[in-house]
Write a structure and sequence with these properties.
11 strands; five-stranded mixed barrel; OB fold (Dihydrolipoamide Acetyltransferase, E2P); 2 domains; three-stranded antiparallel sheet; globular; about 160 residues; single chain; mainly beta
């Protein structure tokens, strides 16, 4: 079977749905990706829109379900499929579906706080790197005692992932 990889940058446009399919949990939502282009006079005009259903399985269910919802800006990586079906009037239709392998917030359009601590970091000499509360992290943010980056919770666009 041929699988076509795809990356979509867009916005979640439906309330995500979490359900069981057999013995596996599924987290499902629709994403819209809109394009625009600059006209000859320098203004922007809307282009085409892509709508796709995103299906998250396995370990993605927990992370995506805990941190993302309708209106959030996301980047979805996965494999694209089309599904054909008959609508209520009996017309043959098709829809675009993505079986996600990775989903995350679009950091160009929001601010994120990472809740789960990463594995210990190691320096090039092989020793463990430790951080104190006063350690400065990229972007002028501070790290807490566990070494996690801390972003002020009152900043606009905060998404907890």
């Amino acid at each position: 079977m041929f699988e076509t990889p795809i990356t979509v940058v867009g916005t979640i446009v439906t309330n995500p749905e979490r359900r069981w399919v057999g013995d596996q949990e599924l987290f499902k939502f629709r994403v819209a990706s809109n394009s625009r282009r600059r006209t000859a006079d320098g203004t922007w005009e809307p282009g085409n829109s892509l709508y796709a259903t995103v299906n998250c399985w396995g370990r993605l269910v927990t992370g995506v379900g805990a941190g993302l919802g309708k209106g959030d800006s996301v980047i979805v990586v996965g494999y694209v499929y089309t599904s054909e079906y008959d609508d209520r009037e009996g017309n043959r239709r098709s829809s675009l579906e993505i079986r996600a392998t990775a989903v995350g917030p679009d950091l160009a359009r929001c601010i994120v706080r990472i809740e789960q601590r990463r594995h210990p970091e190691f320096s090039s000499a092989g020793g463990e790197v430790t951080r104190s509360e006063d350690t400065d992290v990229a972007g002028g943010h501070r790290a807490d005692a566990d070494g996690d980056r801390v972003i002020a919770p009152d900043e606009p666009g905060l998404v907890t992932a």
